[in-house]
Request: fold
Amino acid sequence: MIPLVSGLAPLPRLPARRATDSAPLCRDPARDRRVPTSRSKKRIALKKIYVGNLPFQATGPDLEALFAGFGEVVSAQVVEDRETGRSRGFGFVEMGDAHAAKAAIDSLHDRKYGGRRLTVNEAKPREARVGGGGLGDGGGHGRGD
Reply:
């Protein structure tokens, strides 16, 4: 059992912190509301680049090394098959500077790399997929009607 200490004055109660105390707010015109912004993070406009016709033995670090000569590479990844883990022959590189990305695209497009001619261009936004597998028409497959 812990003995109670008497004679201590209670601590003063501090006012509750509000979300507005932690970060300044800025106006978000897209949503027409105020949102917190971070003071420490600098907003960087990344440029995403598609790299196609890669040799199947190429890796993310290989892509990073290939693009590093043009500027800062934020990320580089080779897309792999989910089931086999084998490269699908294309990947994506994100660069922090649009001018460096443009220089890399201009220099590396149609250049031989690992015995193959690369396809290098600005990545397009991913299209939304429609549907979700299945048989689609609801069937009758194998019912023997």
